[in-house]
Amino acid sequence: MNHPRLRAALATFTLAAGVAHAGEADVQKKVEAFIGAPAVSSVKATTYNKLYEVVLKSGELVYTNESVSFIIDGNIIDTKTRSNITQARLNALSAIDFASLPLKDAVKHVRGKGERVIATFEDPNCGFCKRLAGELQTMDNVTVYTFLYPILSPDSIDKSKRIWCAENQGVAWMDWVGAGKAPPAAADCDTSAIERNVALGQQLRVSGTPTIFLADGSRIGGFLPAAQLNPAIDEAQGKAKK
Q1: How many angstroms separate the CA atoms of 191 and 120, rounded?
Q2: pLDDT-based confidence at 13, cuts 50/70/90?
Q3: Backbone angles phi, psi at 109, to 5 degrees
Q4: 135 close to 226: Cβ distance less than 8 angstroms
Q5: pLDDT tens digits, residue range 190-239?
Q6: pLDDT band at residue 5, thresholds of 50, 70 and 90?
Q7: How far is it, in rounded angstroms, from Cα 174 to Cα 109?
Q8: Beta strands 71-72 and 77-78: pairing type?
Q9: Which of 189, 161, 187, 190 is nearest to 176 (CA)?
Q10: What is the C-alpha separation between 161 and 1, in angstroms, rounded?
Q11: Please, is 80 exposed, middle or buried when counting C-beta atoms within 10 Å of its C-beta (0-12, 13-18, 19+)?
Q12: How confident is the model at residue 8 (pLDDT cuts 50, 70, 90)?
């Protein structure tokens, strides 16, 4: 739980039970009164023991009852299917419209025919991004759109500008993250795309790198080896075509 007011309030939670059969709007009002800020993005009744799902504007998901007499910060596991209901909802909530991504602001790298497509948000100084580059070089038939997302250090901004202004952006990116070859000195070019990428990443709640978006809009937060990434790409590609 990262929301500071909610975390502090949970330690001293003594809120009395409210009126029965409270609607979702009432639950939102009570939760925000408890937190002390308009922090709720949405409230939805679940089928699990009269719990309400509460999505915070920070992207976190918690549960409460209709009177908001308690708050659960954790996962709901369906014992029949052994599936993590909370993680499934978080995955759905974090999905995007892939077609809406401004691919012109991304560095394009094609492997083989490039029929499968993913988009990544990556910092040039991110260690796991370099590991991802190594895995991508073992994969075939994929086009990668990398949104340069320099959030780790000022040097990340400098390297991103050098890569963006390179004659061949895709080669410059892979030379750096894949082989450690420093990008060429920055030429005089328009680097406003990098600023737009940072704004877009913040809008999409990209909090770490690498973050991967698949063709169906689903999100993978972090590094995956090719053995796991390949089938995930295939599955998302199939869904996107339906």
Answers
A1: 18
A2: very low
A3: -135, 125
A4: yes
A5: 999 999 999 999 999 898 999 999 999 999 989 999 999 999 999 999 98
A6: low
A7: 8
A8: unpaired
A9: 161
A10: 35
A11: exposed
A12: low
